Amino acid sequence: MESYLSKKVVPPTESGGNNDARENKNNFAALPLGFLEELAQSNSLEDILLCTSYWIREIFQADRSSIALRENDAYLKLYALDGNDVLPKDCLIPIQSSFVGQVFSQQKTAISPDNRISNMIDCQWLVDGGLLCCMDTPLKYKEECYGTLNVAHKQVDSYNEIDAKVLETIAKWVAAQIYKHKQINKMIELAHIDPLTGALNRRAFVEATYFINDKPRQYDHKTALLMIDLDKFKAINDAYGHPVGDKVLIEIAQILKDSVRSDDLVARFGGEEFAILLRHVNSEEALRLAELLRAMVEQTVVEHQNQRIRCTISIGIALPIPTDQGFEELMQRADHALYVAKRKGRNQIILSGMTEA
């Protein structure tokens, strides 16, 4: 079978003469304009993968196309596919015993002309779905292999060396896009995530409160802000050193992150101060969570050189009130409540509006 790109289409010469020699020498391949246009309009890595899997199937007249990316040291995961779904999206494929795993590990394009005689597990799965031939190529950029780009067909011997070259070329471009998006995501993460604790940083946290700043009269009043400070944290740093202090911060941050819901926000404001923005809660629910956090931290032990280090937290809570003009007012009241909790002896919770004398 001859694929779309195996026809080696070349630009016409001015003379309009025979192009056979030039075709053989330059090996031109025509890409559909729709593919290029959709790639140019893709705004995310997911868009690129879905677009590529669709057009690769069209270009190679395949019965199935897919993209598998490295999930961990043992498995690849199917992130995009088009056509026959004998191996569904999100399917995990073992690297050690699969054809795509072999291509990924060896970082070399390979064709299985007849899957029926292959002992690779994914080739056997393809046969179960009526796909007798497959071709896979690594998604490699700058010495890093992200996964594989794959096509399969119902007929044996459907792909040849020219097809392999074309698939490799497209895979290199896709791999470059994966690299670009990973770099962009890394920069976004560096700009928004506290590198020590993995919580949001202050900038990202404040930006995420736009709904309070933009609509001060209309935003969700079932919101609670918790300002949290580790008690006497300086004493831990002075006694055990900053690496141990960092270990304590990481442990406390993990407790905070594990205790909230997916639509709540946890941030490290700097030093030993954290903030949590709870959505869709009333004061009783905010107080209940705050008490849970306080108790969990109080019971937490950080081991260091046969010593057991404990710490406590103080928490100030504020909920929106009609006079608030935005997030700053809410934060000021939560900060003041935290100050009162510290002044009253630490390891306690104060709700703004309670008796704070």
UniProtKB/TrEMBL annotation:
Known catalytic reactions: 2 GTP = 3',3'-c-di-GMP + 2 diphosphate
UniProt-listed InterPro entries: Diguanylate_Cyclase, GAF, GAF-like_dom_sf, GGDEF_dom, Nucleotide_cyclase, Rev_trsase/Diguanyl_cyclase
Domain of life according to the entry: Bacteria
Gene Ontology cellular-component terms listed: plasma membrane
Region (Disordered): 1-23
Cited SUPFAM superfamilies: GAF domain-like, Nucleotide cyclase
Enzyme class name: transferase
Domain GGDEF residue range list: 221-354
GO terms of molecular function: diguanylate cyclase activity
One of the GO BP terms on file: cell adhesion involved in single-species biofilm formation
Cofactor(s) required for function per UniProt: Mg(2+)
EC number assigned by the record: 2.7.7.65
Any Pfam family hit: GGDEF
PANTHER family the UniProt entry points to: DIGUANYLATE CYCLASE DGCM-RELATED, REGULATORY COMPONENTS OF SENSORY TRANSDUCTION SYSTEM
Protein name, UniProt field: diguanylate cyclase
UniProt organism field: Vibrio vulnificus
